[in-house]
Amino acid sequence: LCTIIHYLVSGQLGWFGLTVACVVPGYVAQLLSILWFRADGRSPGCWLLLLHLLQLGLWKRYWDVFRMTAKAVCSACAGEVLMRHGDVCVLRLLEALLQTLPHLLLQAYVVVALDPAGFVPGVSAGLSLLSLAWALVCYSHFTCLLKPGHLCPPAAAILCLLLWRTGMLGTRVLALVLFARLYSFWVFAVAGVHWLFMSFWLVAQQTDIVAQPCRWRLFNCLVGAVYIFCYINVRPGPSKHRVAVFYAVSSRDVQYSTWM
Question: Is the C or the N end of the chain the one with fewer CB within 10 Å?
Answer without folding.
Answer: N
